[in-house]
Backbone:
């Protein structure tokens, strides 16, 4: 016998309904970075997805009201960083509005194509942006992987129930 959803408690589609449902969806945590005319920009993303193996492509969502959007809307390349469970504070810094994301204690360097690369991550990619697809108040960015490094050590950071956490065994 299969369980059926309780139709008495269902709610009409709304931003709050979507947030409530996705709080229950555990997602990996990444930081997306780019170079702007005034310096590096970046934000925490839980929307990172592998799109294609051939050619290797990824996607992520970014709000058009986000402080990083002006740079992401015009840049040719982005950095994608997979965070480890030891990087909860880094994830929080890049998620916080108005934070000095690239100031101490963040450790980073300029990478290929001028992309800011964060140190100590589990893995990173440099990607060439190929499309920005309108999606409500966001854009879905499609980007082709040009190079990367998967050799970082540690366990992944995840986002669940509105907080950053590690995986449990």
Residues:
């Amino acid at each position: 016998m299969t369980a059926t959803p309780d139709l008495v408690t269902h709610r009409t589609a709304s931003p709050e309904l979507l947030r409530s449902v996705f709080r229950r969806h555990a997602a990996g945590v990444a930081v997306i970075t780019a170079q702007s005319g005034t310096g590096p920009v970046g934000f925490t993303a839980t929307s990172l997805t592998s799109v294609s193996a051939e050619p290797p492509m990824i996607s992520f969502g970014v709000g058009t009201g986000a402080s990083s959007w002006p740079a992401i809307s015009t840049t040719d390349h982005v950095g994608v960083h997979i965070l480890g469970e030891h990087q909860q504070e880094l994830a929080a810094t890049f998620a916080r509005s108005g934070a000095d994301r690239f100031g101490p204690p963040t450790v980073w360097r300029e990478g290929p194509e001028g992309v800011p690369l964060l140190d100590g991550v589990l893995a990173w990619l440099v990607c060439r942006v190929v499309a920005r697809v309108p999606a409500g108040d966001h854009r879905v960015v499609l980007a082709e992987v040009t190079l990367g490094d998967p050799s970082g050590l540690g366990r992944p950071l995840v986002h669940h129930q509105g907080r950053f956490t590690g995986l449990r065994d």
